[in-house]
């Protein structure tokens, strides 16, 4: 028997995760920018900051979108 299909987007967003993840990412980025860490740590932090931003935008979209009026079959 096949499992029921679920929505890809989450229904409830944990908003505390976003600032909690941003603080260490920015700390690593600025530490690399000021020379306390090697340059590659800054590139890695920038890479993860881009993914953090996209994750935040998808979470905002998921929380603001209106649910469909009738279920799909």
Report on this structure.
- The relative contact order is 0.15.
- By secondary structure, this protein is an all-alpha fold.
- It has two helices and no strands.
Q: What is the radius of gyration computed over CA atoms, rounded to a whole number of angstroms?
A: 18 Å
| Fraction in helix | 55-70%
Oligomer: single chain
The number of helical elements comes to: 2
- The residue-averaged pLDDT reads 84
Poorly predicted residue ranges? none
Q: Kindly, what is the distance between the CA atoms of the first and last residues, rounded to a whole number of angstroms?
A: 17 Å
SSE topology string: HH
Structural class: mainly alpha
**Shape, please?**
elongated
What proportion strand?
A: under 5%
**Number of DSSP strand runs:** 0
For the largest beta-sheet, the strand count, sense and barrel status come to: none
What keywords describe this structure?
73 residues, mainly alpha, 2 helices, 0% strand, elongated
List the helices and strands and how they pair.
Blueprint: H1 17-33, H2 39-64
Helix pairs in contact: 1-2
